[in-house]
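Note to self: the last two entries modelled the partners one at a time, which told us nothing about the interface. This time every component goes in together.
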Amino acid sequence: MADDDAELLKATFAAKDDMAHVSFDISEAFTTSFQNQIKNGLVRKAHIQIELQDSFGSIRTIIRKCTFKKDVWDEQLQILIRDGTQRRLFQNQRLIAESIKLCGQLKNIPLAHKHLLRAALGYRLRVTLKLNPVSEEERRRARRFMSNPNTQRRSSTRSFFDVLFGVKQTYPDDTFVFLTDELRRPVFEQ
Amino acid sequence: MHLALKTTALLLSLLSHTAFAQPNVAATSTATTDSPSVLLLEGIENPEPDSDLTAPPIAGSDTVILETIEIIGNEKTTVDVILRRIGIRADEVLVDDVIEAGRLRLLATGYFRSVEFSLRRGSRRGRVILVVEVEERNTMMISGLYYGTSEVENAFGGLSLYESNFLGEGVGTGFGFVLGDNRKAAELDVFLPDLSGTPLQLAVSAIYAEGEEQLGDNIIAPIPMKYSRYGTQFGFGLSTGAAQRVLFNYRFEAIQTERLPNLDPAALRSAPSILFDDSVLASFGLTYEFDTRDDSFVPLLGSHLLLSIETGTRLLGSNYEFTKYQLQFERAFNTVSGQSLVTSFQGGIIQGTTPFFNQFFLRDHLAFISGRASLPRQIGLNFSRDTDYDDLLAHLRFTYYVPFFGGGDFLLQSFIYASIDAGVSASLDEYQEDKEGRGIRRQMPLAADVGIKFDTTIGRFVLSVAYISDLIW
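The predicted structure of the combined assembly is written out below.
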């Protein structure tokens, strides 16, 4: 998805110790369909990629991975949130909306060391939310050849209405991209 | 006491789970009641690369048994076909990764517009029911649509249809025909992507064709060479890994060719390769295919490799002894905002003698260029005067795709494309005698095309300016 299609994101960019921290909320972007899937009791995943950019390109990228699971017997939700090497397991949640906020609200996430931030301004956050991401390996494993390559009517690649048999394989991995306005370098204490 | 036991069980369950069974885990819990709680797990030095694929444990239970599978929404597709594709059985332990993989496999069939899984409580605690809800899509597609005029036929036309889920049994069935004044052909094929739930595939096809090739340089009174073909192919495929397969194929065709009158030896030498009267083409083929493209119609990413070898031998009863090697490779690059550059290469070589309809025909591949006819064959029939069937082929194409409309109920997506290609073909015998070869000497090797590709609910269409130009000039 190009940045032209990105939604505007409001984020705060603040200093704490020697690190620049970011905070923002994209929990509204978790679709109703995704929430219903959580309600249905199967494991659902969301990946949030946070990329700090300056005018020259990407400075640092981190990924938050969230896994949701509802126990159909207890009607309780568990959410595993993984930020780098840190994992937090939230248990006994009952409201899906609240669980989504645990994942989609990012507060004071350490993103970049102050040495990486040389310019006074011109920083942007590019955030990509993937709901139910399907990896390339998973796609490959799911594939099955559905036709014979040796039949002659498909051997010619050209005709007036060249019609190819095939059905686009659609996987429900919704992706949403957000981009902030330009951000100033946070003020670090000396 | 009860609450304390429950919390202990929860922690044991948590720590026994593979995602958390790390030696350096230090878990602290704030959970003492049924209220929301958080466990902070830190100090994990070697986290799993993508360990969130593994679900959090279910509180108070190590395993959940899948009691039964309910399928709803399938009006045509049989339950057996769906269960075979999901690959999950009742009374087995529920593994979330396996469930999700089953859902993706079901989507990958192309039989369904959507597939949703959900869980319901089973007959007792620890047992659940998997509900599979599908929305079917049209699986009868137009796979070929041909019509036109040419210097040898006032008009010709044809149609091919492919039903990928015949009678809801998950069997692909295709039929196609093309008709002209002096030429006709039909082809039928059946393909089983899952043979009784095994990784084996089965392919059977049959072809019937009555054709005519025109000999000599005299356009007003050409010499017709009439022939007919009745053939069949049996093949079975074997999945050899993710997105890979090997296909074994046996081909048998009975050919009848009318004898030509006494001709100038030069004209006879230029006649397409075939034995007069009755002959048999019997061959054994081996094809390897590796396809990681996200879509075969307009790929944005991935590549496709096809290697094949076909051998005709007297041991199989063939009158033609030959070996045909082919290589096809396609690679897609996602450039910007849904646009893609697709490069493709096709090459081949034939050693020995095979009937002309099994040889390479440059017109099948090369697009239009002014001053050079380039009508391709349809279901193996040649509707042009050109009889340049060759044993060597090399063809390279670059195509750029730009999406411009889509998302409707009927028109799913469409792309404008522009392509440029270069191709040569040559006869092996001629090449050995004349280094320029037939293709290089007589045909401009460069060509170009622009057009529109449509992906609709009834088929995928390409409106090609090059082909229209071929028909006009």
